[in-house]
Every structure is written in structure tokens, then in C-alpha cells.
Amino acid sequence: MLQHGEQLLIAYHQGVFALEKDSENAKGVLQVGAPVFVLKASDSIPNRVYLGTQNGLTAMEYDGENWQPLEFTDALPFPIRSMVNAPDGYTWLGTDFSGVIRLQLDDSLFPSTPDWTRFAEPEGFTSTFQLEPTLIDGKLYIARSDSLYELAESGDRVKITRDFGSFFPQVETSIWNAHKDNSGRLWIHRFENNPRRSELGFAVEIDGDYQWQSPSYLRALDNHHLPTFYADDSGILWYGGAPGLFRINPEATPPEEYQYSLRLRDIRDSEDQSLLALLAEEGALTVPYADNRLRFEFAAPSHVQREAIRYQVRLDGLDSNWSPWFEEPSMTYTGLREGSYQFQVRARDAQGNISATTAIDFRILAPWYRSVRAYLVFALVALFAGRALLRWRFSRLETQKRELEHQVHERTRQLEEAMVTVQLTGLHNRRYLERFLEQDLAGVHRLFDD
């Protein structure tokens, strides 16, 4: 983006848009048929803007009503990614694969071919891939991989000024948008090629050496392609790319711990009916046993790297620990037994901040056969059944007793007969005479005495 008078010029993948002051809509002002990577105002011609595009260097001029294109400079057929005016009066262009180009850009002669010099591997670079000229403390540096380069005294070669290999050992890293803020921190947006990931952070000079820092509040920018960078006069840093526009105030002190509230979106039972209205109406949640399959749906209020948000749950009354972090913003419980529970959920955002815990108390009712009333009925039935069983048992014992007494009496009688009767003839034996003689004699005496 580039401000021109009352317009904000915005480069995009086919040309340039313009956004007028106090307007809500941008309009296309130039179409070049290729991505435009950088816009730079001319130093001497107020209405001229140079464009670094996929097809090289071109320009456009404002005639008071419209922007008019100037011809392409065929002598520079390189993709121009960045453009910096150095203190020595040269303009430096960064390319994708062709090193950096130093040229004496004469506004009055453009689009005639300017004098230019290309710096690549023979001039001291280890690679020509995505070299980026940048100004740090008003001095020209060229960022490449894990190093910063500057011109040697001869002016025709470059030399490594700062080696950042200790920051990112054994990792192939590209450095973009190096910038030193008002506090002396060297900001770097770095990219790793294998695996492909990115990180924004800054190097802090301590005792003559730099130390790399990447605080958690910068995690929202991780793994995003943000090739556009701008530091405004107030020190605010702007990073732009496909995900949007990010604003960073380097002087602001973020809170050490940032907590936010996680939102409960819905609670649904086994019939897929929402229970939120019942919870809001009664202030408590009571669920019949037949509906004891519950799904809790929740969300974290974040619009930055939503795909990086993770959740963690715990069900007091069932779980003793928090679950592992997971991605799906819901949790389903099935087959819950009757009892009181508390569902707890929290979130972790892309910056590593953990939300406050959201908790919902609820109770699962017992099934009818495990209710207090059912247990009372079961107890009464068992009592009556036990009593009937005892009475039946006592009756059986009484019958068995009578039968046993009868058997004993009959057996005794049989034994007595056997003792006084001859088994062969059935007549009384000597024992009978000995047993009943005295009894019979006594009877005779009483008879005759009477």
C-alpha cells in the first residue's frame, strides 16, 4: 500500500486499486496483468509511482483524474519483490531468484533503460534466492537466509554483517522484513523451507550479542505468508498477506496472562433436542435417564488462526483428570449413570492462552427400577415374600414333625409286639409271660378280693 494525496493505493495480483478518503469502496485504477509486489513514490515527480511486478519494473502517473501507465522497462525482466532507496542515492531492487539489483533511477529519463548492476553469487552471496534489501538505522542491508549482508568498502561486493545461524541451527531459514524498532529490537519474519513454517520475532542485543525472542502473543502470525511489511512514523509495524492485515505495536506490553471466556453453544440430548432453554429457565439441568446421551457444543471467541484452537474437557463425577487437547468443538457422553455431574471445558488459542473454565452442573435421574420408590416397593415385596416363605416353611416343619411322631409311635408299637410274640406262630413268648404275669396276677387278686 502507498498513500498518494487523498488516495490509498493498494497493490494486488492483477494491478492497483485506489481507496479515496472517506470512501468505503476501492476501485481499480491500473491493470497490468501480473502480480504487483511493491509500490514506491518517485522522489522528484509528485504524481509518479513505480511498481515492482512479476514482469519487472514499471510505473504509472496521475493526471489529476486518472492513473496512466508507463511502459515496462524491458531491460529489467525480473520479478521485483522490494524496492529501497539507499543513502548513497541508489535504488536497490530485490528479486525472487536473480539476486539484488542496484540502479541509478533517473525520474526524468524513465522508462529509458537505467544503469544497473546485479549482485549475485559472484559478488559474495551464498544464494540468489529471495534477497531483500532493507534499511536498518538508515543503513542498507540485504537479508538472505540466516544472515544480513552489507556492501564491502569496494562497493562492488557484499559481506556478511550479522550471522543468525545460532538462532536457527541446522534449519534452512529465509529472513524477510528485517526492521529495527525504536527500542533497538531487530524484527525478523523468518521462513523455514522444510517443513514449511514461519515465525515472527525479534533479536535483542545483549552484551554485544543478539538473542532471539518470539513471545506467545506473536503466535497468531505463525505459518502465514506475509510478504508485505510497513513501519509507519509512529513505530507501528504492519504485516500483510493472504490472511489479512496485522498491526503490531512494539512498545505495548501485552499482559503476561490473557484469559477469555469460552462460549457454550448448545447442549443436546439423545433425541437431538436442545436443553439450553431448560437450563436458562430453571437455572439447573435435570435429565431423564432415557435421555442420558448428552452432546456439549462450545466455541472460543477468536477469529485469528481458528484452526489452531484446541479444547480440553473434564466431567466431574466421571473423570479424575482433564482430557488431552483436541480440535473438535464438541464432546459427547453416552450411558451416563444417575447422579450429579459438572461438565468443565476450556480452550487454548494460537498464542497458547488458556481460557477461563466454563462449567455446567447437571443431574441424571435414576431409571424407574433404580428409584427410591422402586426400592421401597422391592423391599415390601421382599418382606411379604419372606414372611410367606417362613410361614410355608414352618408349616412344612410342623407336618414333618407330626409325620415323624407318627412314624416313631408306629415303630415303637411294632418293636413292643416283636418283643412278646413268637415270630413263627404269632403266640406270646416267655418274655410276654415275664412282663405281664405279675400284672395279670395282681388283677386276679383284685378281682377275687372284691
- Unreliably modeled segments: none
What profile does the largest beta sheet have?
Answer: 4 strands, antiparallel
What is the helix fraction of residues, given as a range? 10-25%
The CATH architecture of the largest domain would be 7 Propeller
Q: What's the CATH H-level superfamily name of the largest domain?
A: YVTN repeat-like/Quinoprotein amine dehydrogenase
Mean pLDDT: 81
Number of domains: 3
Radius of gyration, taken over Cα atoms and rounded to an integer in Å: 50 Å
Description:
The chain is of the alpha+beta class. It has three domains: 2-248, Methylamine Dehydrogenase, Chain H, CATH 2.130.10.10; 263-370, Immunoglobulin-like (Sandwich), CATH 2.60.40; 372-449, no CATH class. The chain is 17% helix and 38% strand. The chain contains three helices and 30 strands. The strands form eight sheets. The protein has a four-stranded antiparallel beta sheet with strand order 1-2-3-4, with no helix packed on it. It has a four-stranded antiparallel beta sheet with strand order 5-6-7-8, with no helix packed on it. The longest helix has 49 residues, at 372-420. The radius of gyration is 50 Å and the shape is rod-shaped. The mean pLDDT is 81.
A few lines on this structure:
It is built from three helices and 30 strands.
Topology overview:
Blueprint: E1 2-4, E2 7-11, E3 15-20, E4 27-31, E5 36-41, E6 48-53, E7 56-62, E8 67-69, E9 80-85, E10 91-95, E11 100-103, E12 116-119, E13 132-136, E14 139-144, E15 147-151, E16 158-163, E17 173-180, E18 186-193, E19 196-206, E20 209-213, E21 228-231, E22 237-241, E23 244-248, E24 263-268, H1 276-282, E25 285-287, E26 294-299, E27 310-316, E28 330-333, E29 339-348, E30 358-364, H2 372-420, H3 430-449
Parallel strand pairs: 25-30
Antiparallel strand pairs: 1-2, 2-3, 3-4, 5-6, 6-7, 7-8, 9-10, 10-11, 11-12, 13-14, 14-15, 15-16, 17-18, 18-19, 19-20, 21-22, 22-23, 24-26, 26-28, 27-29, 29-30
